[in-house]
Amino acid sequence: DLNAVAFRFKDKERPRGYTSKLGGMLHYYPIEEVLAAEYLLEEFRPDLIEMVLDKLRPENVRVAIVSKSFEGKTDRTEDWYGTQYKQEAISDEKWQNADLNGKFKLPMKNEFIPTNFEILPLEKDATQYPALVKDTAMSKLWFKQDDKFFLPKACLNFEFFSPFAYVDPLHCNMAYLYLELLKDSLNEYAYAAELAGLNYDLQNTIYGMYLSVKGYNDKQHILLKKIIEKMATFEIDEKRFEIIKEAYMRSLNNFRAEQPHQHAMYYLRLLMTEVAWTKDELKEALDDVTLPRLKAFIAQLLSRLHIEALLHGNITKQAALGIMQMVEDTLIEHAHTKPLLPSQLVRYREVQLPDRGWFVYQQRNEVHNNCGIEIYYQTDMQSTSENMFLELFCQIISEPCFNTLRTKEQLGYIVFSGPRRANGIQGLRFIIQSEKPPHYLESRVEAFLKTMEKCIEDMTEEAFQKHIQALAIRRLDKPKKLSAECAKYWGEIISQQYNFDRDNIEVAYLKTLTKDDIIQFYKV
User: Where is the Coenzyme PQQ synthesis protein F-like C-terminal lobe domain (predicted)?
Assistant: First the structure.
């Protein structure tokens, strides 16, 4: 019983969200059943099954079909959105003459259902943090055996680094379409895997491809092998290529309708990152993506790779090494993959703003009446000291910022302040969405920041220590489940900072800071 397995090995929930969810469920279940009601079906009720099946009749059905092929064949217009449509009854004769659909059939045996839930004993050389257990020209493998949650689960994260993935807008588009088509073809496995408690994620990044497989560790390797084999031997379906390419163009066009504050964040990222392609550049290059060109690109993309991975959970080091070897062997066998040169493993940099520099970039939004603004004050490269200066300053100004700019001045519903970090560089940012013009919003942020100097100077030592304590508590809050802990470690790996004990190290430094340190940070 998959539901019983899911309940037995359920991850720990965050208390605030979980209590709210259970409170809502009390409308439907008695309190003694509310924890297990969504999972455990203890009574077999064929009468309920028959009742539902009895409702699946032609007289109870409404069929909606959406397609461009109906253009010019409609006779009605929807009142609110102006959508053209047609409505007609399906005759009894059509229902009576309908044939059986061969696509409706019982599913194949689910090969991903776990059967072994053994919690493996900790190995003698088990480490507190991820350890580098393999480092070759082809791959770098980080491994950590779970020593906190003791569930039969694991997280497998892979980054496939390729210099071809983000060379120009054309290559960026092809990388995106390749993975969307690949995910589309993997749907035959994804549903069965999800039923069995396995999930995967596959995305294109500016450095190549990201793949993760999470869930019960017993059959994880089966799903992973199928994904890698499909990746290395992928054949494009021409019809799906056209459909997914069209959907991608729609998503690029729909960007103009996103919220103004999202546009502000997007344009700042473009301005500050060493290499970034705009939506317009991607749209212009999309017409050049043809089926033959995409096929050639896939072969080129897989021809040379560097793989960095983190395998974390209820697995042994030997099993982790075996999984990594399987990934490499599959790519080498089917795609003839070779390693990259060390000089090709270069990360993008952030633009350094000159001291006292002030730059403004404006874009007109033709969809929304509101304005969005992101103001970014670049500070320095990430380090233990700079991280804590910035985070403590953000902690101190957070409540006054919200109270002043949103509550008192009512600049807008969206008012946010906090750290911004990218490519190893960081700073303070303010994000506001408002009906008021951007130059006015900027002036109010500047005015607010000027008041902060006196606010910090007049702050009592007791109040200052409360801010330190609040930040320390937040930073030392332990992950509630394996996937959350793995995500923290993975963030260190993809940033190539590898500071797995960051929270303890930085909080220890935080507790040494004085009010004068923050005043000096503010003035500099």
Answer: 392-490
Considering the segment(s) 131-344 as one domain, its CATH architecture is 2-Layer Sandwich (3.30)
Domain 2-89, classified CATH 3.40.50.800, yes or no: no
Cα(483)–Cα(313) distance, rounded to whole angstroms? 9
For residue 421, list its beta bridge partners: 426
Query: Using DSSP, how many helices (H) and how many strands (E) does the chain show?
Result: 18, 12
Q: What residue segments make up the domains of the chain, in order of their start? A: 2-89, 131-344, 371-523
Give me the tens of pLDDT residue by residue for the chain, a chain 524 residues long. Answer: 889 999 999 999 888 899 999 999 999 999 999 999 999 988 899 999 999 999 988 888 999 999 888 999 999 999 999 999 999 998 888 888 888 888 888 888 999 999 999 999 999 999 999 999 999 999 999 999 999 999 999 999 999 999 999 999 999 999 999 999 999 999 989 999 999 999 999 999 999 999 999 999 999 999 999 999 999 999 999 999 999 999 999 999 999 999 999 999 999 999 999 999 999 999 999 999 999 999 999 999 999 999 999 999 999 999 999 999 999 999 999 999 999 999 999 999 999 999 989 999 999 988 999 999 999 999 999 999 999 999 999 999 999 999 999 999 999 999 999 999 999 999 999 999 999 999 999 999 999 999 999 999 999 999 999 999 999 999 999 999 999 999 999 999 999 999 999 999 999 999 999 999 999 999 98
Q: Which helix (H) or strand (E) holds 58?
A: none
CATH number 3.40.50.620 given to 371-523: no
Nearest to 352 by CA among 274, 433, 415, 417: 274
